[in-house]
Here is the input.
Amino acid sequence: MMVLIPFRPDISLSASKMVAYMGVGGESFVMGASGISQPDQKQQLVIVYEKPISALNYAERSKDTKEDSHLHKFLLDYMNGTGITFCDTYRRGNDPPDYLILRRGKECLLDLAQFTCDKRRKALALFERIKTKVFHDEHGQYPNLFGANIVLNFDKDSHRQSSFPPTTNEEKYVDEIIRGLKSFVIDRSSWVESEADLPQKLEKENQKESITVDFYASPIQNIPVSEFFLKHNFELSLAFYSRYSLDDVIEEISRVVGKHDKPEIEEMIISFSAPNEKGIVYPSESIIMGLLSDSDTNFDLGKWKYIKVVHIHDWISGRIMTIYPRLSCPVNPRYFHSIMSSIFSYVCQS
Here is the structure.
């Protein structure tokens, strides 16, 4: 199911291609576009839609358990991609470092970190409150939405001056959104084959005066496997605009490395799109790492006093890059046919 969402770039942007991650059955997990900003001619990535993934076989986990899963996946992808092991043995460190690894008879102090898009994670966490409240409604409360994928887009709500979903202090707006969902009338006559992928926007007269939120409806063509859909027979997701340049990503990586530049740490692995403590994967982070992998020049990460090597690892695709002190890509993507492939491979390996 391809989800198409209109968006307004906050800069002058010449978009050159659409970017997307499709899951098993054709379900959209990420939608966006990339292109060149004007007049500075910088590569830009725009993300307008994202559906977080609950990684299989995961429950609430401790920091150590989460880090173990990140390291195991890195080691698996490294071995599959190169045919050699990253290290001979490893054991837990004193935090810092997270691990002591033995490589060719020499011990190395290794620390792990995650690249996170805090703005997107905040928006999706706030949206999850709305979706959870809808989920707990009794079955049969939303017959008008049967078979539809409904996307909410706050897009700089003029009433609240925010593009984020309502916060915990704005509960009245959540109730208002739910009432809007229950009264949303979908014109299914427009869902002919030639237009089936185009979202239908909620008419303005159905909008409330206290909150501005656009509802988009499109038909579900592949039944999603989710508790929400199985209970209510429709899907609910969020459109949220964010933009990233290569400079933005390098700046964030430099900040993360700088926090870990200590005598107890010699080497780092920074994971993109890896599960958090609740086992949630944010696939947009995999596409953001693509800004780095598409670049063919060394990155200016600064000079570090103690850290000698920095690797980055895409948990979804399996790509591994060494970005400090020199740029290299020892492992190219291992999983092409589906966003879920690496998740399945790790679960099977566990």
In short: The two ends are 30 Å apart (CA to CA).
